[in-house]
């Protein structure tokens, strides 16, 4: 396999290491030069590094074209650039909101758009979009982060139908809380005292005290992503970790029950001649 990965830290880097272990060549896209120099020293020309910021669409398109030109064929593309903003919607600054959307949503959309023509031309390929359980559920104080994850999941689900005739297959990976550097890298909003006694304040205190249970294992998460990416017919969504499984199951059940409870109300909105 010849994958294209965004691996500076966390799951992306670990995924890159696992791909090398099984003998793959990797094209890595980085925001910071030098982040993978140790892997370059170990694996030589099996690693190709390209540097760009996902918020710079022009540079990204140029680098993606270069990656496909020099590699000949790329079988797997992993989109996992991420930025986490912690704080309520009211507390966030305009600049923080813009960065959250530009990185997680617009950046991911433009990265996928950049690779699609190349995958279509070569006759297909796989795209793994790393989302999170936060693409199907919501915690207080992560409202802007959730907006991007729900948004990218809707985008991918639609695009998957558009490009299926060309042999392009999508997988949305949805890890729950996992032992990576994500929590340490969170950008935090200013705090407003009015939220101290709210669910947002409770989560803030729990995160600060380290009381939140992190059940997900990064190695096992990456192993599952690679296994599913190798499947002949992979699922569109891959839930990863017991926390994600339980929270998403609960959310889907609640939505299904609410849908059925208000079924008559839903049907009442039809035109009378249709009803």
TrEMBL record:
Keywords linked to the UniProt accession: Oxidoreductase
Family, per entry: Belongs to the short-chain dehydrogenases/reductases (SDR) family.
NCBIfam families: PRK06482.1 (NF005065)
GO MF, one annotated term: oxidoreductase activity
Source organism phylogeny: Bacteria, Pseudomonadati, Pseudomonadota, Gammaproteobacteria, Oceanospirillales
Residues annotated as transmembrane: none
Classification via InterPro entries: NAD(P)-bd_dom_sf, SDR_fam, SDR_oxidoreductase
One Pfam family hit: adh_short
Protein name: SDR family oxidoreductase
